Amino acid sequence: MPEPTNPTRLEAAQRFVMHIGHRDGNQAIGLLSPVVTYRVPGGRTLGGVFSGSAEVAGHLCDLVERTRGTFEAIKWDDWMVGEHHVAAWADIQMRIERYGFAGRVLFLLRFDVGDKIDEIVVLPEDQHAAKRFLDP
User: CA-CA distances (angstroms) from residue 118 to 31, 34, 56?
Assistant: First the structure.
């Protein structure tokens, strides 16, 4: 039986972001470095800085709960691969109670020397709309 191969950085990034906002998100936690940092603009509801894989996992679970499963990547527009980073443009939408957000978001993932994701930065194209949604 052949040994399992490690995913490429692009494959790891795709696996991780495809699980964001879904109940099976914990399946992607193994792709993260134990010292990962996850940054989302805003501060009160879903925004902030989350440090360590356990805190990131908690944030992703909170995202699912608060959006009640409405987080959806409508379209993954492009994937850009560099030496240490993978970036993905996506059109996303989600709701929290009566507030909705639809827009383009850049997910920037940095990898460590062990090919684990050690930084995730979420950058909405329309920062003002994202801030209004994340901090109603």
Answer: 9, 8, 11
* 74-109 pLDDT tens trace: 889 899 999 999 999 999 998 888 888 889 999 999
9-134 CATH fold: Nuclear Transport Factor 2; Chain: A, (3.10.450)
Q: Where are the beta strands (DSSP E) in 9-136?
A: 32-40, 48-51, 72-81, 85-96, 99-111, 117-124
- Specify the pairing of strand 85-96 against strand 48-51: unpaired
How many helices and strands, by DSSP H and E, does the chain display? 3, 6
Residue 133 three-state SS: helix
